[in-house]
Amino acid sequence: MDKKTQAPAQKSWWAAVKSYLRLYFVDAMSAMAQGLFASLLVGTIISTLGSQLGIPVLVEVGTFAKSMSGPAMAIAIGYALKAPALVLFSLTAVGSAANTLGGDGGPLAVLLMAIAAAELGKLVSKKTPVDILVTPLITIGSGAALAYLFAPAVGSVAHSFGQLIKDATVLQPFWMGIVVSVLVGIALTLPISSAALCAAFGLTGLAGGAAVAGCCAQMIGFAVISFRENRWGGLVAQGLGTSMLQVPNIVKNPRIWIAPTLAAAVTGPIATCLFHLEMNDPSGGVASGMGTCGLVGQIGVYSGWVNDVASGIKPAVTAMDWLGLALICFILPGVLAWAFDLCMRKLGWVKPGDMKLDV
């Protein structure tokens, strides 16, 4: 094979690898986060409302929703992988098995087992005259077998890694506040799912509070510093939607990302050291990676407060708690990002129109 033939072959191989990496670790993870949101997170919100308003039926409905998190994640992953109908429906059992056997690291186990089962199911789908039997048998059988073999180990590794981060944050709240806030905030803006990452590793407690701070710094930060270009529509789209909208602009000028990231580096340790902001939401960490998206992060923090008060861990929700939540999630991200962005503009690193959204 000559060099001219070898180069296109190498390029084709690398393009295929990048395509699969994007499919499994971007598309599938983002879909998994949506499945978590539509079951565990919404169920937690409904249950919290029911307990606070004294409406038992809402608590029951929320419990039903939360119990379906495994199947919801698996179906969402299958949808992202464009699985045929029978494969998609069969993934409910795979998701339930992987999430149950994975324990605290269930979401990561569901991600891996659902991907494997979906791909194996796709291999046999519509290949036999008895597709209605073969496809579910292969999908459920392979997924359940993999879950029994590997889900406990995957869950244990994910739990241990998450616990390491949480323990390190408690021991070194300043430095870990910076690290967790910046990294999770960056993940939120990138086309990967910060919510799925936080759920996979169970980032709760003080580390969860730092994660919330980082996500809010990115969302509110970009919403504020791009206001002159995008006005109110952009403020809402980024502040209550996602800062991921800025990815095309970041590719053109990465320096626009400096201001929100520096804001995250400041608000993270303030959250951990000054306000001791914790995310103890019963959803197991998914709300830690949501920021101000639909105010899910703030609802998660409040749900954690309610649970802590009910269990006696926390005596009451104080004015200092509310002040910390407002400062960390809304006020400081906007003010700090604006100040840092002003410096970037004076240096000529950011110019008018650099953050214009095509919305």
- Class derived from helix and strand content: mainly alpha
Question: What oligomeric state is this?
Answer: single chain
Indicate the percent of residues in helices.
Answer: over 70%
Strand percentage lies at: under 5%
Poorly predicted ranges (pLDDT <50, ≥5 residues)? Answer: none
The rounded Rg comes to 22 Å
* Euclidean distance between termini CA atoms: 48 Å
Q: Work out the number of β strands.
A: 0
Largest sheet: none
Shape, please?
A: globular
Q: Number of DSSP helices?
A: 14
Please trace the helix and strand order, writing H or E for each element.
HHHHHHHHHHHHHH
Overall mean confidence score, pLDDT: 89
Characterization of this structure:
The chain is an all-alpha fold. The protein contains 14 helices and no strands. It has helices at 3-53, 56-67, 69-80, 85-102, 106-124, 131-171, 173-189, 194-201, 205-225, 227-241, 247-252, 258-274, 296-311, 319-346. Helix 4 (85-102) packs parallel to helix 6 (131-171) and helix 9 (205-225) packs antiparallel against helix 10.
